[in-house]
Amino acid sequence: MKILLDEHIPSKVRLDFGDKHDVVTARRMSWDGKKNGELLGLMTLKGFEVLITMDKSIVHQQNLERFPITVILLKAESNKHEIIQPLIPQVLDLLKGNLKGGLLIVQQLKENS
């Protein structure tokens, strides 16, 4: 599966996916700074299937159904690798399913104090 990590996701995260998926960063594609609509269009042209982002505004700015891409929104307290890394097993579970586009949310679990 061809996956793009949005520019605010640390590049180290791509290593957490192992070798079963082709995971590339927006920076590597020289797509950092692109607006969401343009980014989704470029992804479609280049055959990407999944965007992993922390950009909550993408839901309100874009009609995600227009694009044949699944957007996985990570909800966590920060974009630090050590905070995002525990979410990756949930993402990998989602990737095993039949993705049909649209939005999926992976949320950091809150521990009871």
Task: Summarize the model shown.
This protein has a five-stranded parallel beta sheet with strand order 2-1-3-4-5, with helices on one face. The protein has four helices and five strands, in the order ββαβαβααβ.
Structural description of this entry:
It contains four helices and five strands, in the order ββαβαβααβ. The mean pLDDT is 91. The protein is globular and about 30 Å long. Strands 2-1-3-4-5 form a five-stranded parallel beta sheet, covered by helices on one side. With 113 residues, the chain is of the alpha/beta class. It has helices at residues 36-45, 58-61, 81-84, 88-95, and strands spanning 2-5, 22-25, 50-53, 70-75, 102-107. Strand 3, helix 2 (58-61) and strand 4 form a beta-alpha-beta unit.
Q: What is the strand and helix layout of this fold?
A:
Blueprint: E1 2-5, E2 22-25, H1 36-45, E3 50-53, H2 58-61, E4 70-75, H3 81-84, H4 88-95, E5 102-107
Parallel strand pairs: 1-2, 1-3, 3-4, 4-5
List keywords for this structure.
113 residues, alpha/beta, five-stranded parallel β-sheet, 4 helices, 5 strands, globular
